[in-house]
Each structure stands twice: as structure tokens, then as C-alpha cells.
Please model this.
Amino acid sequence: MSDGTTGLVLAVESSCDETAVAVVQEGRRIVANVVASQVALHATTGGIVPEVAARAHLRWMIPVLDEARRQAGLDGMAGIEAIAVTEGPGLAGSLLVGITMAKTLAWLHGLPLVPVNHLEGHIYAAWLIDPAEPEKPAPEFPIVALVVSGGHTFLVEMASHMHYRLLGQTVDDAAGEAFDKVGRLLGLPYPGGPAIMRAAAAATAHDRRFPRAWLGDTFDFSFSGLKTAARREVEREIAAGPSPDPGDGNAVLPSASVAELAYGFQESVVDVLATKTIRAAQQANARTVVLGGGVAANSVLRDRVAEGARSLGVPLVVPRPALCTDNAAMIGAAGFFRARAGVRADDSLAARPSLKLAVAEPV
Ligand code: KG4
Ligand code: ZN
Model:
């Protein structure tokens, strides 16, 4: 995009279970941001059924696009300079719906089509500015970013735009996956992350301690042992006899026990994530720490990383919770910087369910 233009990117995201369209200016200012969540739909099955998710995207994609255009006050596509879309990673059938929408829009309006890596989107959420928010400086490089979502958990160093060096990643489950699985063990509603956070807030004894998988000095993570420890603890407490509070839905244990177990589990996950992130920031001489992905909506994790970053004297950028979970504004932010670097897709663009974090040339 050259000078004297609008800098407006329309972005489409449908990689998992949120149907989302946004309009973002210059990779930063949110002009419109619409997310249709399928959480209620998937709560009935306790998790995502891929075909159900794809069908819901098909049902909601056009209404979500219309609402985004209404919010942005767009007359057709006037002023839009590029269409950005998540090409992966994610569920194949879900990705296809967004990609087809984006391709069609680009073709109809003669606009460039810009493919975006969903994980890159979670990092670029840190660049976003809300409509009513005053200007703020962009995150300064080098950046150390922790991305913690339902399917991914990793730490990267960014020396410049779209330049990623992987510092460490999970060797088994993603942090969000662990929250979701342990939430289910505790009889909490789907998704487990927010439910565990709410349950843990009611804990008072703080007397259940779960193991931490430090994996030596590496920046790798492991959560499967923790999940097994949580299962064993839940089974032990169920066998010990106290029955759930009367009228308490799907509860497996009294709510006080659920609160303590949720607290102990959350502490273990947060402790490892926050400690490694701050150590990575220190080693990399980071000028900014960034948190992204659905688990970054967790207030205990946010507070713990903020504390560590403050003691290092490095600013932390963590988007508000609704911008940590899946949305299209983050795809619009990453899409702008990709478009500026000349990244384009043609009409052969396909869904890439297992896409890794792209390593592109810096701007
Ligand atoms: O980034 P995201 O919206 O979708 C993926 O790309 O996976 O992340 C969803 C994940 C789920 O596992 C959900 O349980 C978790 O983020 N999550 C949370 C919280 N809010 C969402 N985990 C912990 N605490 C939260 N408050
Ligand atoms: Zn995500």
C-alpha cells in the first residue's frame, strides 16, 4: 500500500470456532470488529465437532461480514485496499469457509488477497488500538512473545516485523487444551479456561499443589503430566466420598474442592508460563513482552507476567481479553504489515491446517 491511500484492510478469520470479520486501518486502528462465537453450540458436546463448526461458519459468515461493513460505515467495499484471511493453522473445513469468502471478495472487487498465519495474528493483536482509545506507540523490537491458545503454546523472539525465532514450544498439550481437559474433569462447562479461572477465584485454602514441568533450562513446555496429576487428584477426591453440592449441574465434587483443584492447576500452568516468558525476555534483552492467544485472557497469567516484566523494567503489551481470543482484527493487523511487505496470494490459495509460524523477510 502506498502513501495517500486509506490503509484499510478487511480481514476474515474462521480457523476454529469463531466466525469473524474486521476492518483495521494501518495495521492498528480497529474500525470494525465482529465475532460470532460458537461457544454455546459446542458447549452441548463439551468440545468442537469440526463439521458442526464448519457448518456454523457457513451460516454466519455473510451476516458477520454485513455487520462489519455496517460498523465501518462502508459503502460496498469502497476504501478497502486489501483482503486478509487466515490460511492456517486450524480446522480444514472451518478455514475453507473464510478463505472462500476472502477469495470471492478479492476477485469481485479486484483487491489483493493477503494470507495470514493465525498464530502471527495472535502476536499482532498487540498492535491494535480500539476505536475510542488514544494513539499509543507500537511495540518496540526486539519482542519476546508468548502465544498460548487452545492448539498452540510457544515462545518466540521477533527482531523485526514478521521475523520469528522460535525459543521454545510445548512438547505435548497446548496450555488451553490442558485448561479445557481439566475443566471437563472437574465437571466445569466448556471452554475450560474461563471456567477454571472463575472457579479458582473462589478458592480460599490454596492447599492443593500440582507439579511444574520445568524441562530444565529450556523454553519448552509440557502439560500432559499436569493433566494426569489433575485426573489422579480428582479421582482420589471423588473416591474419598464428599458428594457435589445439591443442584450443582454436572459437578463431580463439592464446589469448594473444585475451587481448590482449579486454583492449584491454574497456579502450576501460570507459574511455568510466566517464569519462562520473563527469563526469555531477560536473555533476549527484549524491549517489549507480548502475550497473545486465548489463555492470555487469563487474569492471573496477565498479572503474573506484568509483575515479572515490571521487575525487569520492560513494557508488557497484552491485548484486552476479547482481542486475546480469536478475532479478525488481529488478522487485519498482521495482514497490513504483510501487505506492506508485498505478500500476496493468488486464487490458488488453499487451507493449511498444519501451518507453522511463517518466517518472512522483514519489511
Ligand atoms: O486463541 P483461542 O481463542 O483459540 C485458538 O486459536 O485455540 O484460544 C482458545 C483457548 C481455549 O482453550 C480456552 O479454554 C482458553 O483459550 N481460554 C482461557 C481463558 N479464556 C480462554 N484459558 C485460561 N483462562 C482464560 N480466561
Ligand atoms: Zn487462536
